[in-house]
Design brief:
This protein is an alpha/beta fold and 420 residues long. Helix content is 44%, strand content 13%. It is built from 16 helices and 15 strands. It has two domains: 52-279, Type I PLP-dependent aspartate aminotransferase-like (Major domain) (Aspartate Aminotransferase, domain 2), CATH 3.40.640; 282-411, Aspartate Aminotransferase, domain 1, CATH 3.90.1150.10. A seven-stranded mixed β-sheet has the order 4-10-9-8-7-5-6, sandwiched between helices. Strands 11-12-15-14 form a four-stranded antiparallel β-sheet. Bound molecules: pyridoxal-5'-phosphate.
């Protein structure tokens, strides 16, 4: 639960946690947040999440609950559902999943039996753990047939997807990514799913804000079911949601509750309602387009400085670059960047010769810095800083100097939700 830094109750009751939250506020304020799955929720969203709604049990769905006292909660959940439904033009919405991974588990529970064949983009190609990776329950309980990207251009090979689908006839076909800088061809996935009789599940955890803002094509007309987080480009609280066709509404609802979860996190549901209202504005549309435009400028600037970008660039909010030619590793580069105030993450690149715990790539993105109002001029400065750091990851004096420059820049771009 979020805590408001001006509320004195926590500082009095638990000075240790209050101090740690304060330190995190300063860290989030004074560094450049480049992890593409992170963002800044607004003050309004944080306030909803820090409310008494967290106290209430409400197993079930509006007007079909197991405990009394739901007259307020029912309205909160209905508002969240209706707003999300309107934003995406979806036939049915469930806002109860605790996060993106539980949302995906609910999709499995709704459509699959243990041992069924499922297909998704492999983790090394930019897919998510929950799409059938071996260490995830999705790879343990189902027969996972991953597809990949082409070696030449690192793009998803739709011919391979089609050939594998014809051969293995999956029950469920995932289209969704976690480290892939290009748009997905929803219509092509739909036609493959139709050809083999698979359920098409689009996972837009990373890009739901871009979809709402019109900066990425929507899978809603194509997919049977669409899952998402609510805390990435959507800029809501940490949570999950599932959109689906009417015919799957009861299967999805039953999978989330009672299939998988107990009482929903009502404070998060309220936060989702607030975020959905914010996402319905013209300002949010501009935000979504600026995220992509910033990413393209940052990608071009890095390219011009000799960084090899996976797929050569970006069409969304995310950039994956290979630091091998720069003479370092993804982990060393990401750690040095973080010390300098440029917080991204080390990441495998397609066909990475290195191990996942110290891979060749670094993954960055523009959702959070765009929420702070940064634009093209700042993208050029960030590219220059990344270049300086990666050229000498061990140079601590250089890192400290850049960290100070970044803290100075951040003063001009207040982060949503942070008052200090
Ligand atoms: C982030 C992400 C998830 C999981 O979300 P959590 O909230 O971390 O559980 C699922 N799918 C994709 C594609 C993601 O990027």
């Amino acid at each position: 639960m979020a805590t408001l830094e001006r509320d004195p109750a926590l500082a009095a009751a638990d000075p240790e946690i209050a101090r740690l939250i304060h330190e995190e506020i300063i860290r989030e304020r004074d560094t450049i947040r480049l992890i593409p799955s992170e963002n800044y929720a607004s003050r309004a969203v944080l306030e909803a999440c820090g409310s008494v709604l967290s106290n209430k049990y409400s197993e079930g769905y509006p007007r079909k609950r197991y405990y009394e006292g739901q007259e307020v909660i029912d309205q909160v959940e209905e508002l969240a559902r209706q707003r999300v439904q309107a934003l995406f033009g979806a036939e049915h919405v469930n806002v109860q999943p605790y996060s993106g991974s539980p949302a995906n588990l609910a999709v499995y529970l709704a459509f699959c039996k243990p041992g069924d064949t499922i297909m998704g983009l492999g983790l090394p190609s930019g897919g998510h753990l929950t799409h059938g990776h071996a260490v995830s329950i999705s790879g343990m309980f189902f027969k996972s047939v991953p597809y990949g990207v082409r070696r030449e251009d690192q793009r998803i090979d739709m011919d391979e997807v089609r050939a594998l689908a014809r051969e293995h006839r999956p029950r469920l076909l995932w289209a969704g990514t976690t480290a892939y800088p290009r748009q997905l061809d929803w219509a092509a996935f739909r036609s493959i799913a139709d050809e083999v009789g698979a359920i098409l599940a689009a996972d837009i955890a990373h890009i739901s804000g871009l979809v709402v803002g019109g900066a990425h094509p929507s899978p809603v007309p194509f997919a049977d079911v669409v899952s998402s987080t609510t805390h990435k480009t959507f800029r809501g609280p940490r949570g999950g949601m599932i959109l689906c066709k009417k015919e799957h509404a009861s299967a999805i609802d039953r999978a989330v509750f009672p299939g998988l979860q107990g009482g929903p996190h009502n404070q998060a549901t309220a936060g989702i309602a607030v975020a959905a209202r914010e996402a319905s504005t013209d300002a949010f549309k501009q935000y979504a387009h600026q995220v992509v435009s910033n990413a393209k400028v940052l990608a071009d600037a890095l390219s011009a400085r000799g960084f090899r970008l996976v797929t050569g660039g970006t069409d969304n909010h995310l950039i994956l670059f290979d630091v091998t030619d720069k003479g370092t590793t993804g982990k060393l580069a990401a750690q040095a960047m973080a010390r300098a105030g440029l917080v991204g993450n080390y990441n495998s690149i397609p066909f990475d010769p290195r191990k996942p715990f110290d891979p060749s790539g670094v993954r960055i993105g523009t959702p959070a810095i765009t929420s702070r109002g940064m634009g093209h001029a700042e993208m050029h400065r960030i590219a220059a800083w990344i270049d300086e750091v990666v050229a000498a990851p061990g140079d601590e004096a250089r890192g400290a100097r850049i960290a100070a420059e970044i803290a100075e820049l951040c003063k001009g771009f207040p982060a949503p939700g942070i008052l200090l």
